[in-house]
């Protein structure tokens, strides 16, 4: 029986048809490129496309050549090109493909050598403001890297002074057909450590007004004991982390540690702050046992019960009783059922 054209799965079409629709959408919505390279984006894309095609990245090469602004809209860019074998049978609407490609593009330039110098599990910001990649494996001796557990198979495939392109074996995020159809966010950033990452933005949380505002908000929401504890150890946090980016704070209703000694109070407060801003929807999408690095060095919080697994979200055994209590450009706070127990270290 012939399939109806009105089927809800209209986008289950060959990848080249989807690409054509993506290009049409981009042509209508993309602004002119602002690349500062000595070569025009069109020249860069032509040269890069030739290299990509010769190594089995024909689909990405076609997109790059016909619509360079999809990848080169920033003055500096890193592009992770997905091999044809991984996307030739891809079925998704144009908007989802465009979003997936933006997730494979960074607004900064990194060669393989620069990536090898980064610490394990460091975050990489993508062209989607709220989404990041994670350096899940780094082997400097063998010059090998995995990002989101996907190997870079063709490092430094194309290098220009403003653009780096690396080939990867597969996409960094799966395309879940159910999530796409329901309009849900299908790209889930892996847990990573922003504290070991480079300074991506001029916006930092070291400015006293940002922290003072958060402490006032905590007090106004009834978390007075935690606000007092944070204010007591804030100077040390800012000394250790002068360039903190957006953060997540987990606040208990009662913070009995507020009268503890200075060093211990400092450890407990840091253990309740994660070096990345997680709204509840993002936390709920994390799998069980996913980890989030805290400001307490080498210590992470863990998802101990996921929404998908039990319909209740717990972190280190504590329930999130009031998600997204407040949020600013630099912080988001979640109320938890009890304070986290700080891991004991013999030399701490």
UniProtKB/TrEMBL annotation:
Family: Belongs to the fasciclin-like AGP family.
Protein name: FAS1 domain-containing protein
Pfam families recorded: Fasciclin
Record organism: Opuntia streptacantha
Keywords assigned by UniProt, alphabetized: Signal
Signal peptide range: 1-29
Domain FAS1 stretches: 211-340
Keyword Manganese: no
Superkingdom to which the source organism belongs: Eukaryota
């Amino acid at each position: 029986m012939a399939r109806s054209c009105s089927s809800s799965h209209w986008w289950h079409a060959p990848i080249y048809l989807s690409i054509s629709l993506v290009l049409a959408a981009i042509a209508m919505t993309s602004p002119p490129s602002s690349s500062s390279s000595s070569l025009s984006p069109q020249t860069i894309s032509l040269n890069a496309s030739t290299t990509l095609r010769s190594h089995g990245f024909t689909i990405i090469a076609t997109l790059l050549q016909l619509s360079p602004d999809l990848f080169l809209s920033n003055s500096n860019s890193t592009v992770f090109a997905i091999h044809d074998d991984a996307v030739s049978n891809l079925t998704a609407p144009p908007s989802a493909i465009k979003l997936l490609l933006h997730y494979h593009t960074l607004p900064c330039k990194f060669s393989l050598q620069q990536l090898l110098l980064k610490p394990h599990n460091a975050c990489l910001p993508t062209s989607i403001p709220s989404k990041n990649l994670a350096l899940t494996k780094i082997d400097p001796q063998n010059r090998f890297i995995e990002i989101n557990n996907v190997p870079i198979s063709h490092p430094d495939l194309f290098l220009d002074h403003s653009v780096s392109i690396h080939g990867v074996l597969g996409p960094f995020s799966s395309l879940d057909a159910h999530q796409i159809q329901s309009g849900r966010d299908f790209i889930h950033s892996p847990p990573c450590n922003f504290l070991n990452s480079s300074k991506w933005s001029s916006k930092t949380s070291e400015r006293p007004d940002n922290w003072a505002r958060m402490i006032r908000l905590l007090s106004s929401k009834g978390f007075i004991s935690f606000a007092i504890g944070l204010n007591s150890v804030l100077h040390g946090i800012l000394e250790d982390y002068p360039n903190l980016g957006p953060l997540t704070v987990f606040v208990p209703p009662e913070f009995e540690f507020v009268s503890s000694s200075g060093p211990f109070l400092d450890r407990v407060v840091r253990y309740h702050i994660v070096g990345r801003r997680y709204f509840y929807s993002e936390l709920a999408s994390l799998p069980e046992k996913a980890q989030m690095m805290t400001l307490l060095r080498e210590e992470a919080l863990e998802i101990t019960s996921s929404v998908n697994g039990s319909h209740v979200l717990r972190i280190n055994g504590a329930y999130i009783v009031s998600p997204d209590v407040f949020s600013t450009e630099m912080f988001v706070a979640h109320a938890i059922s009890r304070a986290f127990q700080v891991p004991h270290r013999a030399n701490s």
